[in-house]
Amino acid sequence: MILKHNNIFLTYSLNLHPGEELEDVQYALFSSAPAVFQKVMPDSPAYAVGPWLNHRVAHEIIKNNILESLKQRLHDHNLITITLNGFPYSTFHGQRVKELVYKPDWSSEERLDYTLLLVKILSELMPQRQWASISTLPVGYARLCSNEVIDRSAENMALCAWHLHKCAEQNGKQIVLSIEPEPDCIVEDLETFLKFYNDRLLCSGIKYLQRRYNLTPAVSERIVRRHVGMCLDSVHATVCGDDMVECLETLAAEGIRTGKIQLGAVLRVQGPDFTRLEPFNDPVYLHQTRFFHDRTVTRFPDLAFFLEDADMLSPHGNALVHYHVPFTWKGTGPLTAYHSVTSDFIEKAMDFGVTCFELEIYTLSVFPELINITGTERERLITGMIADELKWLLEKFDSTKSDTGGT
Length: 407
Description:
Layout: E1 2-3, E2 8-12, H1 22-40, E3 47-49, H2 55-63, H3 67-76, E4 79-81, E5 83-85, H4 109-125, E6 131-136, H5 147-171, E7 174-179, H6 190-213, H7 217-227, E8 228-233, H8 234-240, H9 244-254, E9 258-263, E10 265-270, E11 289-293, E12 296-300, H10 303-309, E13 318-325, E14 335-338, H11 343-351, E15 356-359, H12 375-398
Parallel strand pairs: 2-15, 3-4, 5-6, 6-7, 7-8, 8-9, 9-15
Antiparallel strand pairs: 1-2, 10-13, 10-14, 11-12, 11-13
């Protein structure tokens, strides 16, 4: 959707839908997404979309010269591409993903080459005179990354920023590579983001640009700051204990762009009946879990590990699970949808210049209430759930002090 206030965009991430093949992506774009939007804003002249293109699909689009026809088809369906999800490199549905979602990491040429393909595609599809973003993984999974990997990752991100800078010079398209902090990664919260950004990206990263392109330190830093920022995900921030308003304020004070904000609610369980989480322990996605009791936090790399130790945990504690549940979900027993997405937060984000808001709820694909439903009935239910989520978010936008009613 496109909102009235200063070209604000609200959409949902299409990584919810299968996208392993080009046909899947096209179905998501031209069938699944329009069905959702028609339930939310049937009279809108255009709708914003945030496709997920894995490396195979991105290569196919470029290799087979179908970018122009894709652009025309998006135009014909009144769809405006304002962001791409460049986090999952390969398979993301129907089989084990877990920590594999962080491979290849940012030290690899594969990750850089893939992201540059997305830059080429987005620079063609995005509107003129708008900022757009590509969300990407937070360097890599921490336990798999050495210092050498982190430094090389900073160099590759700086090199990506250089290509984004050249893209902007050539066609005026401004794109932000938006690092998405996630629990248990090199960049997992605001603190580790700033540590990587300031100590690595603005150190080894800009030195690499200086050597490679004979740039001054000031020019190198300006390029990185202009084209590398953060994708603030409300679920990840909540699990890690970050205050999202503080994140926005700190990033602004540090001169770092917030490329987009992903919105979702966290799965929360209040003790003592932690076993109620069993249905959410799926074999596909990684559900990092944090247990809170008596001012202490215990970290679990996945929900399965938390459930193994549940009998030994205090019955008076509570846990937050990296599981994107619907804002509108009523919960069951001790399970609730937990979040701090308010009209005040949205207004603050707009005040800080954020224009892209994206509902992130890919875990509907393994949601217990849908797991035994298949075919057209499953698609109908998911369409209705996403529409309800977007309506809920629109109410938050409409309740801001600024005039952000839908058009």
